[in-house]
Amino acid sequence: MAVNLKGRHFLTLLDFTPEEIEYLIDLSASLKLKKRAGIRGNALEGKSVALLFEKPSTRTRCAFTVACIDEGGHPEYLGKNDIQLGHKESVKDTARVLGRMFDGIQFRGFKQETVEELARYAGVPVWNGLTDMYHPTQILADFLTIKENFGYLKGIKLVFVGDGRNNMANSMMIGSAKLGLHFAIASPEGLRPSDELVKKCEEFNKVSGGTIEFFEDPKEAVKGAHAIYTDVWASMGEESKLAERIALLKPYQVNKELMAASGRNDTIFLHCLPAVKGNEVTEDVFESPQSKVFDEAENRLHTIKAVMVATIGNV
């Protein structure tokens, strides 16, 4: 089946079929080879993209900027103090203005409703660079990294340890269910995805052959894990809860003992970064040969490039 994503938004992996997600991962791999070979592209020649940031960023901002330039496009960074988004000007009106000037719009911020409203009114593809609910571009980078290490995705056991109701856990669960991974969350019972989202993912699992499991005991969760994933214990905007989260999540720290509990000698460690070493992960795991976090960070570039090329590219 031919895959055509031209003109599509990229707001959540819920909107994409397994074939479309696999297409983006494969396209990312080919664009990575091209980049490594020093080949500049022209898939975005003549295109301009707006990069809207309510939240600060290292990897997302740099990846969108470099990816756009690599393929001949022009990126324009618009921080929260640069435009009137949601303050003097409504999201709806901002979308209609930017949509007439740019070929695509990236949004990184708080509310999923904001990126959805941008998409509703912009008239051009809108890409979710992160919201409080979803982080779909990160999942593409994570899955590309896993595929590079194991050669496949379907049947992989991927375990998320820590705050299991954040945007990473949500998006990872969706991606795993779509592509047939065995996904587990190790967390306190109160920090898990919504029942509604779990039910949706269970329906995807009926087609893909994937599974979802929840554990309070992290050592039980990671048995047989190909990849162990964690994230910061307090997301952006939740810093006031950090002391409470440290007390609650200390048993979920990814350390050498937890990595060994997988029972595999090829288990890899993943983290979307930035990491708070000493909280969710120890320094020795972060710096170990099992850690693939910087491959993962680089893969943000190639997967984000694939999303832009597939949706607005000259192909």
TrEMBL record:
Keywords: Cytoplasm, Transferase. The keyword Manganese does not apply. L-ornithine binds at residues 167, 231, 235-236. The keyword Cytoplasm applies. Residues 8-148 form the Aspartate/ornithine carbamoyltransferase carbamoyl-P binding domain. It catalyses: carbamoyl phosphate + L-ornithine = L-citrulline + phosphate + H(+). Carbamoyl phosphate binds at residues 57-60, 84, 108, 135-138, 272-273, 300. SUPFAM superfamilies: Aspartate/ornithine carbamoyltransferase (SSF53671). GO terms for cellular component: cytoplasm. One of its GO terms (molecular function) is amino acid binding. Gene3D superfamilies: Aspartate/ornithine carbamoyltransferase. InterPro entries: Asp/Orn_carbamoyltranf_P-bd, Asp/Orn_carbamoylTrfase, Asp/Orn_carbamoylTrfase_sf, Asp_carbamoyltransf_Asp/Orn-bd, Orn/put_carbamltrans, OTCase_ArgI. Belongs to the aspartate/ornithine carbamoyltransferase superfamily. OTCase family. This is Ornithine carbamoyltransferase. It comes from Thermovirga lienii (strain ATCC BAA-1197 / DSM 17291 / Cas60314).
